[in-house]
């Protein structure tokens, strides 16, 4: 049974019906639409990931904030509104109350999307890559709220690992500390967004959605368990060369330091700078991994629903 929802959380009729009937639902964030991808690719990807979920027999549930309400399941007009990116804040756990109180518009990050999913009872959330521990964290404590959310909310996140701009080893250590299982989808090595693998191992490997669903159910049987991460590598054909990625990240970090970019502006700035320094090749990779994650997430949601979650 669905929980009593706070007054600022609004489910579309279709999403509400699917949750009540225990049919598979897949959630998507809106930051990638409003801030993560340029136009018109942002709207195209938003429509394509929802179409992939539909094709797998799932109800898509993109999450966004409009006029102080967190909507789960967007109309076509609301998707287009998010895609314009005008006057739309990037909303994390820390500034969520301010945006709600001001009745503003906002794009939900991984952390705020996980909050919405947990409140609504949606198990599967698909994103591109999670945030984590930045290389400068030991100086400025720049650690993404995505890790807080994974350690707190009862949601399984499907992503292409963590964003390549991060300290991957420290990010995995933080996830371990918070008790978050990291499951590799057809991989033993943790992927890093543009690259299908890194030097770091995952906690376990699965070969298909059915095997992943068994682990999710086992995790959920623990009343103290919070989030789980399904690390789904970018397809090899769409991955970027390691040297290209390393050089682009180094240049992007230098740009951020020179311009004094700080706080929640760092990640979108670095990703934009990486796109610039790779000649937009990272944009193609970003879009490919989002579509790949949507397929795996939808298959997982379907497996969970078929077996009573």
Give the key terms:
single chain; 309 residues; alpha/beta; Indigoidine synthase fold; eleven-stranded mixed β-sheet; 13 helices; 11 strands; globular
* Measured distance between first and last alpha carbons: 13 Å
Mean pLDDT: 92
Residue stretches low in confidence (pLDDT < 50, at least 5 long) are none
CATH architecture verdict = 3-Layer(aba) Sandwich
CATH H level, superfamily name: Indigoidine synthase domain
In the residues, how many domains can be counted? Answer: 1
Structural class by helix and strand composition = alpha/beta
Shape: globular
The assembly state of the depicted protein chains is single chain
SSE topology string: EHEHHEEHEHEHEHHEHEEHEHHH
Strand content: 5-15%
Biggest sheet record: 11 strands, mixed
Number of helices: 13
How many β-strand stretches? 11
- Helicity, in percent? 40-55%
Whole-number radius of gyration?
Answer: 18 Å
CATH class: Alpha Beta
CATH fold-level label: Indigoidine synthase fold
Describe this structure in a few short sentences.
By secondary structure, this protein is an alpha/beta fold. It has 13 helices and eleven strands.
Overview of this protein structure:
By secondary structure, the chain is an alpha/beta fold. It has a single domain, classed as Indigoidine synthase fold (3-Layer(aba) Sandwich), CATH 3.40.1790. It is built from 13 helices and 11 strands. The chain has helices at residues 13-20, 31-36, 41-55, 76-84, 96-101, 110-120, 137-140, 145-150, 168-177, 209-220, 242-259, 266-277, 281-306, and strands at 9-11, 25-28, 59-66, 69-72, 88-91, 105-108, 124-126, 156-159, 182-185, 204-206, 228-231. Strands 1, 2, 3, 4, 5, 6, 7, 8, 9, 10 and 11 form an 11-stranded mixed β-sheet that branches. Strand 3 (59-66) and strand 4 form a beta hairpin.
């Amino acid at each position: 049974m669905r929980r009593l929802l706070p007054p600022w959380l609004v489910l579309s009729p279709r999403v509400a019906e699917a949750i009540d009937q225990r049919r598979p639902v897949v959630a998507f964030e809106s930051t990638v639409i409003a801030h993560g991808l340029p136009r018109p690719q942002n709207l195209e990807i938003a429509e394509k990931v929802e179409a992939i979920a539909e094709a797998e027999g799932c109800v898509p549930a993109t999450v966004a904030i409009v006029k102080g309400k967190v909507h789960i399941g967007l109309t076509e007009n609301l998707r287009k509104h998010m895609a314009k990116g005008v006057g739309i804040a990037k909303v994390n756990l820390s500034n969520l109350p301010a945006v709600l109180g001001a009745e503003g518009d906002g794009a939900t990050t991984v952390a705020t999307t996980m909050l919405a999913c947990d409140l609504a009872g949606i198990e599967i959330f698909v994103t591109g890559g999670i945030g984590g521990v930045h290389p400068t964290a030991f100086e400025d404590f720049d650690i993404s709220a995505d890790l807080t959310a994974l350690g707190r909310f009862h949601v399984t996140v499907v992503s292409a690992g963590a964003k390549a701009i991060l300290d991957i080893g420290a990010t995995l250590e933080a996830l371990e500390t918070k008790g978050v299982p990291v499951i590799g989808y057809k991989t033993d090595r943790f992927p890093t967004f543009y690259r299908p693998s890194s030097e770091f191992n995952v906690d376990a490997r699965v070969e298909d959605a059915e095997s992943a669903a068994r682990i999710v159910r086992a995790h959920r049987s623990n009343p103290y368990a919070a989030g789980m991460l399904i690390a789904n590598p970018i397809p090899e054909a769409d991955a970027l060369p390691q040297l290209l990625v390393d050089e682009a990240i180094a240049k992007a970090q230098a740009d951020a330091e020179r311009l004094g970019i700080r706080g929640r502006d760092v990640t979108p700035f670095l990703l934009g700078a990486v796109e610039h320094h790779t000649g937009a090749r990272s944009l193609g990779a970003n879009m490919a991994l989002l579509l790949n994650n949507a397929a795996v997430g939808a298959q997982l949601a379907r497996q969970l629903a078929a077996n009573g979650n």
